[in-house]
Specification:
8 helices, 0% strand, 145 residues, 74% helix, mainly alpha
Amino acid sequence: MGNSITSIKDISRIDFLNVFEKINSVEEVLKKDPSQVYNKMDYKTKDHYRNRIKELSKATRISEIYIANKALDLAEKHEGKKAHIGYYLVSDGLEELRRELTNKKDASNSSKVSGWNSWDKNAKKYVFRKRIFDYTFFCFVWCIH
């Protein structure tokens, strides 16, 4: 019983925000921001960007990782304020990102006719399992607090 209480105290001392940022695949992509602005942001702003990606993912039915990578690709092609990944997530570049995602969605619809390739199936399974792990992990953390 004493070991259990000690373990719970040790777990409560862990900085789960840092753990989350290390295991989150979308976070890893966003950290590659060419302008290096993302790395200097506070947690709330980063969370706003991740939530924007989540909203786009739900609206387009495209994976969050793909959306983050597409925003990164667009930022890497430009200079100045357009080189910041946030320009495509929360600013004037959002429409450009949506066009890029729409092009991907149209291409994926045509691939449905010819059948799913195994890579696409495996990627979707990975993303699904990763989300389940993330939500389970945070539910566990929330329960012990």
